[in-house]
Design a protein that fits this description.
Blueprint lengths: L2 E9 L3 E8 L2 E9 L6 H26 L22 E9 L2 E3 L4 E4 L12 H9 L3 E5 H12 L7 E7 L3 E7 L2 E2 L32 H4 L1 H12 L5 H10 L30 H9 L3 H25 L3 E5 L7 H14 L9 E3 L5 H8 L11
Parallel strand pairs: 1-4, 4-7, 8-11, 11-12
Antiparallel strand pairs: 1-2, 2-3, 5-6, 8-9, 9-10
Length: about 375
């Protein structure tokens, strides 16, 4: 008797995670660095290698459980040519960085975090390397599918998953189907314009997008501007806009003083978002303000999106979701303030599955017809 088994893979700019999913259970998870600087071919080779390692480990474990009988199977990486074997029929499901066409499996576009990734035919390249059938979707879309399957948005008919971290992305699920949209670009909420980001450069090449003020790196950049004592009128205006204030109505704030400084002169200046989060949790005034500005900008944008899409639940994942009330508080406040009466009460909750959501979602690609567009 053979069982369907999936190697689920999450491909990011810094690491590749993979694990086996059998009967809905994720196991044998591995994580390796993404050889991004070496180009797309090296990344594809690494995906194939980690997939082979997961299959070997899963099969070895199965063999041990069955008294030493090999269960490696006879297909693709597992042995022969059709993906079948005495225990498993293997296939690969991938959530990958970039705009991914789920019908063709091609990377429509990607950022510089994966040089040469744009135009890569993931299905053809990985099938050639592994001998196994492959399905692929964007990594944040995979996160959305995972949370909808067994996580925070399980048992809902519609949900919006927002990944807030190094970037800002999302996936919208309705009646079990992922919205991919024209050119497979649905979900790029990080590029919704917001007043708080006016004049700020966005990684996409535009300006004024929410990612330019609300992502982890953007919040760190805001903090550094505050620490420099920016008497920059644009920054003051951005802060007031993020807090819903006008120039006339805004009360005096520390940003109006000529030289804001960290709360403790002896405290080390944070060099990354993790350190900045620790400073905010410790009550450092400018760190708190930087997170407040970013969280309010994102919350406002999400409120507007909920007014349009009306999902049953908004699920927040990514690194920023691990923050305490210094981020969640202003996020909730700004989100709620934007909702129209008909959308009031829309729940805003934390994701439950962490990094595993993308793996579970990628494996779930084999539960439906490939590349459904709605």
């Amino acid at each position: 008797m053979t069982l369907p088994a999936t190697v689920a893979v999450d491909v990011g700019g810094t690491k590749i995670r993979a694990g086996s999913v059998i009967d809905g259970e994720l196991a044998h998870v591995r994580s390796v660095p993404t050889p991004a600087i070496a180009g797309a071919r090296a990344v594809l080779d690494t995906i194939a290698e980690v997939a082979a390692a997961v299959i070997a480990e899963t099969s070895g474990s199965r063999g041990a459980e069955s008294g030493g009988r090999s269960s490696a199977g006879s297909g693709g990486l597992a042995g022969g040519g059709d993906g079948s074997g005495s225990d498993f029929v293997w296939r690969i499901g991938i959530g990958a960085a970039g705009v991914i066409d789920p019908v063709t499996g091609t990377v429509v576009s990607a950022t510089d975090s994966l040089p040469g990734w744009t135009g890569t035919d993931l299905v053809a390249e990985l099938t050639a390397r592994t001998g196994l059938p492959v399905r692929v979707v964007n990594d944040v879309h995979a996160h959305a599918l995972g949370e909808a399957a067994v996580g925070a948005s399980n048992d809902t008919r519609s949900s919006l998953l927002v990944a807030a971290g190094t970037g800002i992305g999302s996936g919208f699920i309705t009646d079990g189907h992922l919205l991919t949209g024209r050119n497979s670009a649905a979900g790029h909420i990080g590029h919704v314009p917001v007043a708080a980001a006016a004049g700020l450069d966005c990684p996409c090449g535009g300006t004024g997008h929410v990612e330019a003020i609300a992502s982890g790196p953007a919040i760190l950049a805001t903090y550094r501007r505050l620490v420099r004592g920016s008497a920059d009128p644009d920054l003051v205006q951005s802060e007031r806009a993020a807090q819903g204030q006008t120039h006339e109505s805004a009360p005096a704030t520390p940003s109006d003083s000529p030289t804001p400084t960290p709360a403790s002169a002896n405290a080390p200046v944070p060099t990354n978002t993790r350190e900045l989060a620790a400073a905010a949790s410790a009550g450092e005034e400018l760190a708190l303000r930087a997170f407040d500005i970013g969280a309010r900008a994102l919350g406002s944008a999400l409120g507007g999106i909920v007014n349009v899409l009306s999902p049953e639940v908004v699920v927040i994942g990514g690194g920023l979701a691990e923050m305490d009330d210094a981020w969640w508080g202003p996020l909730h406040e700004a989100f709620t303030a934007e909702l129209i009466p008909a959308a009031s009460g829309a729940p805003l909750v934390k994701a439950e599955l962490g990094q595993d959501a993308a793996l579970i979602g990628a494996a779930g690609l084999w539960n439906d017809e490939p590349g459904q567009k709605h």
